[in-house]
Amino acid sequence: MTTAVIYSNGNQECERIAQLLKALPQVSEFLRYDLDKDFSKTQFEMEFGGDAAYPQVSYGSKHLGNMKETLQFLKSNGILDK
């Protein structure tokens, strides 16, 4: 089983990827960190870079990136049907 982590600013892409990750049977734990509640914009930029887009996702011990990169990883690893 795997832990999924999302860093969110509450936009629609964040909400969609959060729902998807929660629904995956491989995900045993889902953690969501929200901008201005759990981290600041400065902390986000220091962690992921100034041009990083929301959401930022980690799956297990691997940082996947934004929504597009996360979907590509899930598809290429057979977690989502192609």
Q: What is the topology, as strand order, of the major beta sheet?
A: 2-1-3-4
Total DSSP E strands: 4
Give the uncertain stretches in residue-range form: none
What share of the residues lie within helices? 25-40%
Radius of gyration (Å): 12 Å
Shape by Cα distribution: globular
Structural class: alpha+beta
Provide the fold topology.
Blueprint: E1 2-8, H1 12-23, E2 27-34, H2 41-48, E3 56-59, E4 62-65, H3 67-76
In short, what is this structure?
This protein is of the alpha+beta class and 82 residues long. Helix content is 37%, strand content 28%.
Description:
- There is one protein chain.
- The chain is of the alpha+beta class.
- The chain has helices at 12-23, 41-48, 67-76; strands spanning 2-8, 27-34, 56-59, 62-65.
- A 4-stranded mixed sheet has the order 2-1-3-4, covered by helices on one side.
- Strand 3 (56-59) and strand 4 (62-65) form a beta hairpin.
- The radius of gyration is 12 Å and the shape is globular.
- The mean pLDDT is 94.
